[in-house]
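$ fold --in a.seq
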Amino acid sequence: MIEYTLADWTGKSRWLETEATVYSSEQIADGKFDDGPPSTRLVFYYRDHAESLQSGDIVVDSLTPLYRLRAKETFQIRFNPRKPSQFYCSEAASPFSQFRLAFWVGFATVTVILILRFLQSHHLRWS
């Protein structure tokens, strides 16, 4: 959900949609405790609005529908019409990555609040 909200804010949800074809897939993490869920790197290619061939790679974990894709299989992406080499894939967002993002945003917010309260309690003011 956080990924979708960020995509709306940044305009990525309005980029042009196209089909990407997997060129190769390689498992890069086996899901041990410190690695997070098992992960795969997908190398893919797609055609932009001018029919030029573009390529990219993305790391997806086992909590996404893209994890089991293999060569020649397809999935949907969005690309920036102003810079076609930039792409966004909503299916690559997993609950694990969204949790990690929410955790760090929450941690940063609490840290800022604590610093401001400390400064206020010591009567330090911004100049």
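$ fold --in b.seq
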Amino acid sequence: MKKMVYKNNKHGLLFILMMSLGTSLFGQELGGLYKGKRMRPPIVERRDTAGVIPFDLAKHVELLCYNNRMAWWADAFVGPSPLIFNGRLMVPADSILSRVILGDSLKREWRAALYEDQLCAERMVAGCYEPRHLLVFYDEYNLVVGAVEICVTCSGGYSSNGLRDIVFCPDRMTVLSYLVRISNL
């Protein structure tokens, strides 16, 4: 029986080390069996029935576009400040770049993308959170009843208090960024 010596073969030892490290790092995530196949199990979006779907309450829905909110929010307000306060939107008017009221067909598409479609196969979201788009829901008295903010850069989002939870992920954000484009914003 011959012993293998890697004393003079630095590249071979480095290759074995890299392969074992790569297998241990990446094999855990991808290496499991799911239904007899080697793949990741899908993430099933939980259907939280708490909170309301704002499309059911809103008389009209508006989509806003503004500069990165994180860049100007701290200068506009002292301390923590909500996006909505007493039925009013707290975004300074000079920060809004454009706005559009959504028609019925676009409201249906936004509703499906946010609350009905099972789009998220993974929940990986980057940490930038530089939101530039906001869906605002108004009642018949033109008071804000809720808002959904999205960051298409990192696939993150925020729903105001009382609204039904939304699972944000890259696949959902792909659809939402498409809806932003076709909303003429």
